[in-house]
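Blackboard transcription, Thursday session:
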Amino acid sequence: MLEIKNLHASIEDKKILKGINLEVNAGEVHAIMGPNGSGKSTLASVIAGKEEFDIKKGTISLDGEDLEELAPEERAHKGIFLSFQYPVEIPGVTVTNFIKTAINESRKARGLEDMPANQMLKLIREKSELLEIDRKFLSRSLNEGFSGGEKKRNEIFQMAMMEPKLAILDETDSGLDIDALRIVANGVNKLKNKDNAIIVITHYQRLLDYIVPDFVHVLHDGKIVKSGTKELALELEEKGYDWIKQEATV
Amino acid sequence: MDLKDKLLSSFLAFENSVDLENPVHDLRSEAIKNFEEKGFPSKKEEAWKYTSLNSLQKVDFSIFPKEESTLEYKDIKKYFLHEIDTYKIVFVDGVYSSYLSETTHDGVDVCLMSSAFTKPMFRQVIDVYFNKVASKDESLTTLNTAFCKEGAYIYIPKNKMPKKPIQILHLATGNEAALMLQPRNLVVVEENAEVQIIERHQSLTENEVFTNSVTEIFAAKDANVDYYKVQNDANTASLVDNTYISQKDNSVVRVHTFSFGGKLIRNNLNFYQNGERIDSTLKGVTILGEKQHVDHHTLVHHAQPNCESHQDYKGIFGEKSTGVFNGKIIVDKIAQKTNAFQQNNNILISDKATINTKPQLEIFADDVKCSHGCTIGQLDEEALFYLRSRGIPKKEATALLMYAFANNVLESVRIPEVKTRINKIIANKLGVRVGFEL
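(Written on the board underneath:)
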């Protein structure tokens, strides 16, 4: 589904990604781990199309179609979803209005009519229940004054509404207490199926107890230096990242 | 002949059309002397540093329309807030149109200044209130006073409230190549009375119009006034709006100014608090493009203790538009426990747009809470990426952010249809459909 080949990306001439290779197939969950500053969030942003980053070399494709030239919204229309590490607060636009706009714009891009209001309401009800979101919450301004946990739950709620092909969860576990973590992880697991794929970006093993990855990759200094199965995450939890760094330099 | 000379010579002709024995005429005579002495304000004056009236003074404006014009309601319906039932005071080229208006004397007076000036039943109110809060030395205000003859007269007696909101609409037909209008409005809201007013100036052609308007508003003890100014005029229409508000104990006055179009708009909005526990609210949304210019000059004078004022102006400036915000707050020594808040936030969406913003605080009391803040920025790139990553195209995402930016100013609008109308104008102005009713 997603194929990344020899990807190099920079911001203001600072090289951050230095040759990433990654292949993600439908039905798979991949975890990307690594120390601070290794390029994890950059990788997520570059896949989603953030324009501040320059792709110097390499390719990203989704189902065989090159993404590099596409705007963020066009990538979203093709089924890419990024759950933000720091969701932006937008006062004056309610969660409901925001999600309606997002869904109808994506439908428009696919040549579909607006979703009928009753169907939209039903979907919102269904998906907010999945994430144990209070109805009152939906009429609040997007992310404004939300707690860390509420912001992340709201991200996964949007993911549930948009049903992406490929979801990238950027440090979705940060700022979550154990109950919120469980709710968010349950939500993600219920959304997972054989036709979609998930990339989980995280520092810690903790989230991977709930969202079990098929593959684990370790990112260090802009490159994937080690790949393995879920056991690799446990090993990292136990030993830290230093041995990986050493192995990489050797 | 420049405009000042033309106005001065026109005053003599004007005197033939009014009753010189009426005490109001003494005020006119005083006022024209002041204008003759001062003339139009120039950019040398601090208050007019960023707004020039020079080009307007070169236009050969007709001071009095030559012929009476008639309009069909269906042709101008869209300029009315027609979604709800209202009283209407409508002027066409400065002349009252009884055909388009709906006035009343049923418990409240919603009628004309020309009647109020001339009929004995209004004499007392005119004596007590007329020209009492308007400036007697600001040149444009005195120019208006000199030529005062017509406008809206609204009198709400104690404990009364009109059955419906009141619309004041000034239409310019373009029958004159260039027309100057000087409406004069008086709004008196007595103790514990209430009123909601919507005012709009609209030019129907590309012919030049220059309106120099003065409105006096008196809010007695416990009175409640909502005033909405809709400024979305043609690009050849200029407006100087001088509004003076006097408030007594416990009164609440809110003025919302929506500035979306016109060639040059200058809003001089002055609040004088003459009592305790007064609440004054001044809010504005300005969205400009092309070479439009809007200048908001506000004054809140806190003259008694325990009062509040809330100012919140948001501006979005595109293309070569220019904006000015100058917010002056005076807190007298006696006005302890004053809470005065002022906020002015601006977004520039073009390299060629300009905003000048200046808070001006003169605080002589020591136990007060005064805050002010002004910001000038661009759209938040992070927020834009967030929206786009959810499939919302750049243009729509930009509009959504601008809408969100301006939205909190609309929260205090108490007539839902006004809010809807303003939202529609905003959406139209931003040129988008964002999937939900803005």
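Lecturer's comment: The two ends of chain A are 33 Å apart (CA to CA).
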